[in-house]
Amino acid sequence: MKFYYILIATSLLFSSCKKFLEEDPESFVSEEQFYETESDAETAINAVYYHLNTGSVQSPYNTLFNTGMNMADDDEDPGPGATNSDVRSLAVLSHSTSNQRIYELWQQHYAGIRKANVVLAKVPDITFTDETKKARILGEAKFLRALFYFNLVRLFGDVPLVTTYQSEVLASAYYTTRTSSDSVYAKIEADLTEAAASLPASYSSPDVGRATAGAAKALLAKVYLYEASLPLNITSKYQQAVTEAEEVLSSQDGGTGSYGYDLFSDYSHVFLPAYENGIEHVFSAQMLANSNNQDNNETQRAIYSSIPGLTGNYAHMVRYYTNGNDNYYSIYKIFRADDKRRDVTFVRSFTSPTNGKKYALPLSNTAVPNDSTPFYNKWWDPNYASAGESSTNVTILRYAEVLLIHAEAENELNGPTAKAYKSINRVRARAGLPDLATGLTKDQFRDSVYLERRLELVYEYQRWFDLIREKDASGGGILLTSLQKVGKTNVAAKHYLYPIPQTEIDNNPLLTQNPGW
Amino acid sequence: MYKKFVLLALPLLYAMLSPAQDKPLINSTVSGTVVDARTKEPLPGASIKIEGVTNQTVTDDKGNFRLVTGQKLPYHVIVRFIGYDTLRVELTTSPARIELTQTLNQLDGVVVVGYGTQKKSDVTGSIASVPPAVKEQPVNSIERLLQGSVAGVVVTQTNGQPGGGVSVQIRGNNSISAGSDPLYVIDGFPINNNYSVTNSGVTNGPNINPLSTLNTADIESIDVLKDASATAIYGSRGANGVVLITTRKGSKNKSSINYDGYYGVQKVIKTIPLLNAREWWALRKDAATNSGKSVTLPTVTGYSLDTSGEGTDWQAAAFTTAPMQSHSLSIFSGSEKTRLAIAGNYLKQEGVIIKTGFERFSARLNVEHDYNTKLKITSSIIGTHTKANVAPANIVQGLLYTPPSLPIYQDDGTYVKNSPFETVYANPINTLNNQTNETITNRFLGNVAGEYTIADGLKAKVLLGADVIDNKQNRYLPKSTYEGSSYNGYAAVGSLFTSNWLNENTITYDRQFNDKHRISTVAGFTAQQSQSKGVTAVSYGYTSDNLTYNDLGSGTSAGTPGSSALKWSLASYLARVNYAFDDRFLVTFSFRADGSSKFSAGNKWGYFPSGAIGWNIYKERFFENVKGINVLKLRLSAGSTGNQDIDAYQSLARIAYYPYNFSGTAVSGYAPKTVSNKNLTWEKTFQVNAGLDIGLLNGRISIVTDYYYKKTTNLLLTGTVPGTSGLADLSNNQTSTTYQNIGAISNKGFELNINSNNLTGEFRWNTILNFSRNTNKILQLTEGVEEYIPSSAAPSIAKIGHPVGSFIVYKTDGIIQEGETALTPQADTGPGGQQYKDINGDGKITSAGDRIVIDNQLKFTGGLTNSFSYKGFDLSIFFQASVGGKLYNTNEAQLELGTGYTNASRVMLRRWTPTNTNTDVKEAYQDPAITISDRFIEDATYYRLKNVSLSYSFPRSFLTAAKLKGLRLYISAQNLVTWTNYTGFDPEVSSNGQSLINKGVDNNSYPNNKSYQAGLTLTL
Question: Among B38, B54, B185, B317, which residue's Cβ finds the most Cβ atoms within 10 Å?
Answer without folding.
Answer: B185
